[in-house]
UniProtKB/TrEMBL annotation:
Source organism of the structure: Castilleja foliolosa
The name this protein goes by in its record: Diphosphomevalonate decarboxylase
PANTHER family xrefs: DIPHOSPHOMEVALONATE DECARBOXYLASE (PTHR10977:SF3)
GO BP terms, alphabetized: isopentenyl diphosphate biosynthetic process, mevalonate pathway; sterol biosynthetic process
Major location (coarse): other
Annotated ranges, domain Mvd1 C-terminal: 205-405
Amino acid sequence: MAAESGKQRLMTVTAQTPTNIAVIKYWGKRDEDLILPINDSISVTLDPDHLCTTTSVAVSPAFTHDRMWLNGKEVSLSGGRFQNCLRELRSRANDVEDEEKGVKIAKEDWEKLHVHIVSYNNFPTAAGLASSAAGLACLVFSLAKLMNVKEDHSKLSAIARQGSGSACRSLYGGFVKWIMGKEENGNDSIAVQLADEKHWDDLVIIIAVVSSRQKETSSTSGMRDTVETSELIKHRAKEVVPKRIIQMEEAIANRDFSAFAHLACADSNQFHAVCLDTLPPIFYMNDTSHRIISSVERWNRHEGTPQVAYTFDAGPNAVLISRNRNAAVLMLQRLLFYFPPQPDTDLNSYVIGDKTIMKDAGIHEMKDVEALAPPPEISDNNSVQRNRGDVSYFICTRPGRGPVVLTDESRSLINPETGLPK
Ligand code: DP6
């Protein structure tokens, strides 16, 4: 790495990458190292304004080894998954020249140069939301930009996949399919965009972050146990998912919410059924998750056509996809009726993200929550239960865009003088 001025021998890139929620789930690998799945999956990318990872990466001849900081804490990069991603990226790196900074890096230098990676999630990691998907996708995307990797997003998705399977779907906005692929080397196991975020912009998403005391089984070990012990997963991967993938692609192409909701709910339920069919059984959902499902099912049935679809990943949090804004407003009223906050909670921190939905729901202060009437689909008002405190908070969001580079240097998380987190 050559530099004309001794001072700025540091090059950085900052990028922002969204998280995603699967509506046809990935669960089970056929190759653990390369992270190759046993079925295709489809996801919706969530708006990075509300849920995303921002990552700054830097290179300098002064760096002695690769280092990474996540949410302010240094984390180890020694794991096989990180190493696989770094190796894949370095092998595809190209010459880089930044005339303004007087920096020049030759293709072959990348093997010897070290990088610093500083990553930050704009949502609480402890919430159990898919932070690894956004994190790994952002690491790969930002390093690819820094190293002038010329591959398109699909090729980059195959690299991100080796960091965490679901990360490959975060390389695109809108609606994304991860094609399982057939090749042994995994080169054809890539993500493709089915439609961008503008294609179906009626959809509104509410996430219920459910309080949980239970230590959850990681996706990685959970799906390994499922593949080893469940009979049901074979039927799912071979017979059920291939048909659902075709139907889901059609539902998305036609913006057919009824079909979309039926498929998403059925697939979430089947994923949790194969978890139950695992030895020892895995329980990701809890009583609150089940209550949310029942309330959505009851309302959808009452309306005659689905208003909201639910889906749950490897944890108790509900992701509720509403057919339009009006349905989201009515959903939020129901959620706040069933799951009011503790009396000392600040409403402003109980419903976060796009707060205009709360305003449209007529909820401005705590007394509005207390005054909510039971939804009309409840026939016996005496049996109504309000489960105060069972939800930590709600996030209102929508389908969103894919990764972007942030050119504004003030957004960088790396101190340009020291190469360390700001
Ligand atoms: C339930 O991508 O976290 O969220 O590939 O082992 O890193 P690894 O697992 P991960 O699994 C995600 C599983 C899921 C469903 C999905 O996102 O499709």
